[in-house]
Structures are given as C-alpha cells and as structure tokens.
Design a protein that fits this description.
- The chain is of the alpha/beta class and 263 residues long.
- Helix content is 46%, strand content 13%.
- It contains nine helices and nine strands.
- It has a five-stranded parallel beta sheet, sandwiched between helices. The chain has a two-stranded antiparallel ribbon with strand order 3-4. A two-stranded antiparallel ribbon has the order 7-8.
- Strand 3 and strand 4 form a beta hairpin.
- Helix 5 packs parallel to helix 6 and helix 7 packs across helix 8.
- The protein starts with 10 loop residues before the first strand and ends with a helix.
Length: 263
C-alpha cells in the first residue's frame, strides 16, 4: 500500500464492539484530518425522515412481493407512491423493515449508504457503523473502486466485554440535547442533564442481556468483515477504548500515536 499523508486522507472506518468508546476516537480523526462523521444511524434517520415527511399513508405491504420476498420494481413503487424521488423510495424501503422490527437486509443498507455517501462526494468521511457485515465490506470496497475513492485505514477501538457492560449499563442519555453521562465517572446533576436540565434516561437497549447480544453479533458478523478488509490490504489500526485517565488529550494521543505509524 502507498504511504499515507496526513493532508491526503480520503476516508477511514471506525469500528469496535458496541459501547467500546468509538465516538471520542471518531472526534479525534474528524479534527485531525478535517473529516466528517458519516453514521448509519444518521443515514437511516435522514431517509426515514424524508419518507415520513412525504406523507404517504398507503399500505406498504402492497409494495412487497411475498412470493419473491423482495420489493416490487422501483417503477411500480414510484407509481404507487406518486413520486420517483430516489430518497423517498429508499426511505420507504427502510421504513418497511424498521416498522416491523425486522433486520434491514444488507442490500437495502448498502443502497442507503451508497446514496448518502454519493451526496458527500465519496470523500472526507469517517464511516461509523458501516460496514458491519462481510457483504457490506465487499460492497464498500467495490463501490470505492468504481468511483475513484479509497478507504485509507480502519480504526478498531478495542475494549473488554466486562468493561463495556459496566460502562453501558451505567450510561444515561439526555433525551433533549443528547448529552451522555455515566453514573460513576460522569454523573448527571441529581438525575438531570448538566447542560439543559432535562431528566436523563437509560436507553431501552442498555441492559446487560441486550449488550451481550450486541457483543455476540459483533464477533459473528463484524469480525469477518474486518478480516476481509485487512486481507484486501486495508490497514487495521488498533487503539484502546479504555484509558486509566480519560482526558481529551489522552484520547487524542492514544489514537494519533498509532495512526502516525501509517503516515
């Protein structure tokens, strides 16, 4: 692989177990290399929001072919919806699965990602939450190869299951401004957000049972994707998700000490 230069980073991936501590490391890369965070959560919210705003109130089952277990052709969907806007059609496809509590298939996630990534010019992004599976990793490398882009490296944030469980079950979120707290290390003010005063909450999926399920999913689905990326020549940089003294500078240094070995 050609030598990387700090002023010429195109895209990077940040991955790790759920709760490993990815966000502070994403912030470091965004600041150091002038990148923008591109998260699958924001992608889904964007397209779901566009479809919901469109105001279609028909039955989405009419757009699903039970026999083939696929959506009807896009031209039929456009006719039913009354629009051929690609964003609205993609939002409909995501909503079909999300509303039913079903896993969104890779081919739908891939199409959502491709459309959103295109709006960013396929460059200057920290990919967060994608790719999560081998199929997504294969799709990503094929995509960047066809649009004259690249993935420069993967940043893998490592953390033990035990530390993740302890950290996550004690996590509290402000539902108003999104500020994140920890009951032990960064407690809220008498149960309220220190920024806006709203009462903080525990996310419904921050239970030990659900955390262990997510950890198991990472091992089964994401590790094979990481192995594939590495086999294809994408460097994997490993950084610690747990620091004895958690400060912004310590996080920055722990990331850049490893990344700079590539530069």
């Amino acid at each position: 692989m050609p030598k990387l230069y700090a002023n010429n980073i195109t895209n990077v991936i940040v991955t790790g177990k759920s709760g490993a501590g990815k966000q502070p490391r994403i912030d470091v890369l965004a600041e150091e290399f002038g990148l923008e965070q591109l998260s699958t959560g924001n992608i889904f919210r964007s397209y779901l929001g566009k479809f919901n705003s469109y105001g279609y109130d028909g039955d989405l089952e009419e757009l699903w072919n039970r026999e083939s277990q696929k959506f009807v052709p896009d031209n039929e969907i456009a006719g039913k919806l009354g629009t051929d806007d690609e964003d609205i059609i993609l939002g409909m496809k995501a909503k079909y699965f999300v509303d039913r509590g079903l896993f969104v298939p890779d081919y739908i996630t891939n199409n959502l990602f491709k459309s959103y990534f295109a709006k960013k010019g396929y460059r200057g992004q920290v990919l967060d939450g994608y790719p999560r599976t081998l199929d997504q990793a294969e799709f990503l490398l094929e995509l960047v190869g066809t649009v004259d882009s690249t993935i420069d490296f993967v940043l893998l944030v490592e953390n033990s299951d035990e530390k993740i469980i302890e950290r996550t079950v004690n996590r509290r979120i402000c539902p108003e401004c999104g500020e994140v707290y920890h009951l032990k290390y960064r407690p809220p003010e008498n149960g309220h957000c220190r920024k806006c005063g709203a009462e903080v909450i525990q996310r419904s999926d921050d239970t030990e049972e659900k955390i262990r399920s997510r950890l198991d999913e990472f091992r089964k689905k994401t590790v094979p994707a990481l192995n594939y990326l590495e086999e294809q020549g994408i460097p994997v940089v490993k950084v610690p998700g747990h620091l004895e003294e958690f400060t912004r500078e310590n996080v920055r240094r722990s990331v850049m000490d490893e990344v700079e070995k590539l530069l």
